[in-house]
Automatic annotation (TrEMBL):
Enzyme class, spelled out: hydrolase
EC number(s) recorded for this UniProt protein: 3.4.11.2
InterPro entries hit by this protein: Aminopeptidase_N-like_N, Aminopeptidase_N-like_N_sf, ERAP1-like_C_dom, Pept_M1_aminopeptidase, Peptidase_M1, Peptidase_M1_aminopeptidases, Peptidase_M1_dom, Peptidase_M4/M1_CTD_sf
Gene3D superfamilies to which the protein is assigned, alphabetical: Neutral Protease Domain 2, tricorn interacting facor f3 domain
Stated name of the protein: Aminopeptidase N
Ranges where the ERAP1-like C-terminal domain occurs: 530-847
CDD domains in UniProt: M1_APN (cd09602)
Peptidase M1 membrane alanine aminopeptidase domain boundaries: 245-455
Cofactors (names): Zn(2+)
GO molecular function, one term: peptide binding
Domain Aminopeptidase N-like N-terminal: 117-197
Catalytic function, reaction form: Release of an N-terminal amino acid, Xaa-|-Yaa- from a peptide, amide or arylamide. Xaa is preferably Ala, but may be most amino acids including Pro (slow action). When a terminal hydrophobic residue is followed by a prolyl residue, the two may be released as an intact Xaa-Pro dipeptide
Domain of life: Bacteria
């Protein structure tokens, strides 16, 4: 019986009926390292009160392997009567209740619940939990909704030599009387927190400890810990991470005028992670991709610093004060996205963090907002399945962009003071949009209800374009739903002299929802060759360019001296490509012309990514060869010219190997990488022109050689056996699925469906399956569409989502993928809402590709 999709109405009823006091939970992970065991024992005691005037029955959720016993207020309940799918019915409630459940929970390989990873490199076992938004119930029985906070006390039995961690510190460790090789770790009770941010970590982790000592803002010392797999211990740059963490703790405690709420601060870098990171109070989990065996670019380090600060800000925005329901998900994610970029710049020393936000994160928002499935920042979330789909570019990047606009509108000081009021009033509780607006209106002295209604409860993105022919000089076009918005922004004009764009004037202005723009100060030059309307990226809008300005931008945009200006212009041009208003080949040529002089690692990496997409996604096949060859030649030249060990060298090699999958001109580069890897001893680092050749790079090269140079399965197997490990498993899965033969595609399709692949291996296999001659994967398109409803029914939402997005047939397959997919939507009236949304977005991606390709099939401009 599938009844896992908790609705908002059901949650509202439980919120009114119940108050949860505590959970006392024991997990027995004694045999977790045995891959033959599918489940582990769990005992949970839940204490809660009920308002009997509102009812005497409710349910608790538990997605279980099996249940041995259920006792309510000392009385055993008949399991056959009360266990209904993933819910346990609780009849005959009292004013005060105690529920005890004994059961078995599944080990996970999907990244949802308690994920178990057995390292192929050394056989060690690693486990961690991941719950957001509603997967705590995969491990323990819980009332799984954010507003039913409680205190949790965990205990875990595991091998005595293992590291075991949770949201709080261990208060006792009790040896197993029957076997001294095992012990029971008992943790201190937590403060009142939501179910989805509880956490357990267990396994043969490498751990490093430090103590954060209070800075200028005072507070208590905070124990800090870092965890990673043993295979990555030499790549855990602990001193850098501890320094960054300490700086962040000082910064946020001072900014929010609120001490860190949760006592200890651990960060675990874990394998096969579905997310970038998760804000579990006291035990943040992060993908181990943030550790860099071959060294990191400044852009990569900035990205990690952003995430570390993002999750740390969640200790206040999300954990201390939590949204009451998922419709206000933005109350934590938008704020943390904004705070991550802010703190990475302010205390991390990464001045390009807002450049990254403008060029890359907002691209995610603009893409999401272009779908028919877009939604307001404050979304209408009917159930937890819909909530899972709303962890998207609207909630994160658009929400943060709108917060940046809010700060421009009311001032940073008022914004910070509102945050302080919000935390003080709602600590360890929940809140909604009205609560934050009340604090913001108090701190700013302004009525913000109209502003909030316009920005937070509408969807789509408005357009802004410089037009000296209209009053105020700025023309606004409505969003797809007809909305016009108030904008506070800065603008700068430039003149083109000797091939360079030089500043000519600037000013600050307000663009109201109705009426002409009003200049607060300064002004622009009417005869400008380029007007950069959204200088400093203060607002969220699609910026248009008159033809003369577009020509100047394409000719000399790379000469803008300020990286944030180049980022805003780059974002503008990329959006014009996606809208079909700029020839993708012309855009790619503009990017290539500026690559050699680009000093920002962030912009170099982002520009290479969009240039590649412009050619491979948006150019029709018959126009692709020349631009692709030019891109390959540019990458080869950049590789030859790059300083050894530089950011540019790392970025160019990674992109070059990906483009080598499509461009024979780069095959020799892939051969050089594989040869360098093969020549190094198994325990030594391979080097190519002074750059470490990581296993990730070596396997990216092998994927290219499979497609372009005839590398086969036997060579892949030998390479994986020579250097076993997680990267080898992922690389071999992708490369084997990419082999351009019908037999390899058939084997990949079988593996994708047999249910044995972990989350990362499924994604890698799907990625390889999609590579190469589209005619090889085209025969599976019909099966894909036929199987979607069954896949969604049988797999977890996370794994099913990987299947839907990773295997959606490409528009080059020769199959009418749009027609086939649209045919499924009306024919399947009962398609789950989340599946319908994913499928709709894939359809609209394909339609956009076809529309842009058709626009530029025969003409250039």
């Amino acid at each position: 019986m599938r009844n896992e999709n908790l609705t908002r109405d059901e949650a509202s009823h439980r919120s009114a009926l119940l108050r949860i006091d505590s959970y006392d939970v024991h997990l027995d992970l004694s045999n977790a390292a045995d891959p033959e065991l599918a489940a582990f024992p769990v005992r949970a005691t839940v204490r809660f009160s009920a308002d009997l005037a509102l009812g005497a029955e409710t349910f608790i959720e538990y997605i279980h392997h099996s249940i041995d016993a259920v006792r309510l207020n000392g009385e055993p309940l008949n399991r056959h009567d009360v266990v209904e799918g993933s819910r346990i019915r609780l009849p005959g409630l009292r004013a005060e209740n105690e529920l005890v459940v004994h059961g078995y929970s599944w080990f996970s390989r999907t990244g949802e619940g308690l994920h178990r990873f057995l390292d192929p490199e050394d056989g060690r076992a690693y486990l961690y939990t991941q719950y957001e938004p509603s997967d705590c119930r995969r491990v323990i029985p819980v009332f799984e909704q954010p507003d039913l906070k409680a205190s949790f006390r965990f205990s875990v039995t595991a091998p005595a030599a293992w590291e075991v961690a949770s949201n709080t510190t261990v208060v006792s460790s009790v040896p197993d009387p029957g076997d001294e090789g095992f012990s029971k770790r008992v943790f201190a009770p937590t403060r009142r927190i939501s179910t989805y941010v509880t956490a357990i970590l267990a396994g043969q982790y490498h751990a490093v400890d430090r103590l954060h000592r209070p800075g200028a803002h005072g507070g208590d010392p905070i124990p800090m810990t870092l965890y990673c797999r043993q295979a990555l211990r030499e790549h855990l740059d602990a001193e850098e991470l501890f320094s960054l963490t300490s700086a962040g703790l000082d910064y946020f405690q001072g900014l929010f005028a609120s001490p860190y709420p949760f006592g200890t601060y651990a960060q675990a870098f874990v394998p096969e992670y579905n997310l970038g990171a998760m804000e579990n109070p006291g035990l943040v989990t992060l993908t181990e991709s943030y550790l860099h065996p071959g060294g990191a670019t400044r852009s990569q380090l900035e990205g990690r610093a952003n995430v570390v600060m993002h999750e740390m800000s969640h200790m206040w925005f999300g954990d201390l004060v939590t949204m009451a329901w998922w419709s206000d998900l933005w109350l934590k994610e938008s704020f943390a996205e904004y705070m991550g970029a802010l703190a990475a710049a302010e205390v991390g020393g990464y001045e390009d963090s807002w450049v990254t936000f403008a060029q890359r994160r907002k691209a995610w928002a603009y893409r999401q907002d272009a779908y028919s499935t877009t939604h307001p920042i404050v979304a209408d979330v009917a159930d937890v399945e819909a909530a899972k789909q709303n962890f998207d570019g609207i909630t994160y990047a658009k929400g943060a962009a709108v917060l940046k606009q809010l700060v421009a509108h009311v001032g940073f000081r008022a914004f910070v003071e509102a945050s302080r009021l919000y935390f003080a009033r709602h600590a360890y509780g929940t809140a909604d949009l009205g609560d934050f607006l009340a604090a913001l209106e108090e701190s700013s002295g302004r009525d913000l209800r109209g502003w909030a209604e316009a920005w937070l409860r509408t969807s789509g993105v408005t357009g802004l374009e410089w037009d000296p022919g209209v009053e105020g000089g700025v023309r606004q076009t409505p969003s797809s739903d007809g909305t016009l918005l108030p904008h506070t922004l800065r603008a700068r004009s430039f003149r083109l002299r000797d091939g360079r764009l030089e500043p000519a004037g600037e000013g600050e202005l307000e663009v109201p929802a109705e009426g002409p723009a009003r200049w607060a100060e300064g002004g622009l030059v009417d005869a400008a060759d380029l007007v950069l309307l959204n200088r400093d990226d203060l607002t969220y809008a699609l910026i248009g360019l008159p033809q003369r300005h577009l020509d100047a931008a394409l000719a000399a945009g790379a000469t803008l001296t300020d990286p944030i200006d180049r980022a805003v212009l780059g974002s503008t041009l990329w959006n014009l490509v996606r809208e079909g208003r700029l020839d993708p080949a012309r855009y790619a040529g503009h990017v290539l012309a500026g690559l050699a002089g680009e000093e920002s690692a962030t912009l170099l990496e982002a520009s290479l990514g969009t240039a590649s997409a412009a050619i491979l996604d948006y150019l029709p096949p018959e126009r692709r060869a020349a631009p692709l060859s030019e891109l390959a030649a540019a990458l080869r030249d950049l590789w030859d010219a790059a300083e050894e060990g530089s950011d540019a060298q790392r970025i160019v090699l990674a992109h070059g190997l990906r483009i080598a999958r499509h461009a024979p001109e780069l095959v020799q580069l892939a051969r050089d990488v594989v040869a360098a890897s093969a020549q190094a001893a198994p325990d030594d680092a391979a080097l190519l022109r002074g750059l470490p050749v990581t296993e990730q790079l070596a396997w990216s090269a092998r994927t290219a050689l499979v497609l372009q140079d005839g590398m086969g399965a036997e060579e892949l197997d030998r390479a994986a056996e020579a250097r076993p490990g997680q990267e080898a498993e992922i690389g071999r899965a992708r490369s084997a699925a990419a082999i351009p033969t019908p037999e390899a595609k058939a084997e990949a399709w079988r593996r994708l469906h047999n249910g044995e692949l972990s989350n990362d291996l499924l994604s890698a296999t799907a990625a390889g399956f999609a590579l190469g001659d589209p005619a090889l994967s085209a025969p599976y398109a019909e099966d894909y569409f036929e199987e979607l409803p069954r896949v969604w029914e049988e797999r977890t939402i996370g794994m099913a989502s990987r299947f839907v997005t990773g295997l959606f047939p490409g528009v080059d397959s020769g199959v009418d993928v749009v027609g086939a997919a649209r045919g499924l939507l009306p024919g399947e009236a009962e398609l789950p809402r989340a599946l319908r949304r994913l499928l709709t977005e894939r359809i609209e991606d394909a339609e956009r590709q076809l529309r842009v390709r058709e626009a530029w099939a025969t003409r250039e401009g």
